[in-house]
Amino acid sequence: MPFDGGFTGAASQISALQAFNTILMNTFGWTSAQAYAHEGISMMNGRSDTGEYFYQSDFQTVLNFATSVGLARYTNWSVNRDQQCTPADNNGQTSGTCSSVPQQPWDFTKYSVCSPGPPRR
After folding, report:
1. What are the contacts of 89-94 at 24+ separation with CB within 8 A?
2. Most exposed among 8, 36, 104, 119, judged by the fewest C-beta atoms under 10 Å?
3. Residue 120: inside a domain, yes or no?
4. pLDDT of 104-113, one tens digit each?
5. What span, in angstroms and rounded, lies between the C-alpha atoms of 53 and 64?
């Protein structure tokens, strides 16, 4: 869950996934593909507790990356927040019941259901 740690946007999420992939390869002697097959991500939809922002375009970019490398898991925190606040920016605050960014209902959850998931055996 690379959020609430100084990350904002897709590039930071992908960088965290790549760094973790290297740790897994070095720790277990896996190839990059093997490591990604054991790796997953749960991203924060909208505004995080520390004021980071993850928009729909960030989710799409990370999903494209996850699909291209065979990431085992792709999801978000939290479906309960997957709707727009009123006002959309929630007055600059993070909410537990809405995303604090402009969106349509279920915008972020749609990316999780598009995720290919782990390989089927």
Report:
1. 90/47, 93/47, 94/46, 94/47, 94/48, 94/49, 94/51
2. 119
3. no
4. 999 999 988 7
5. 19
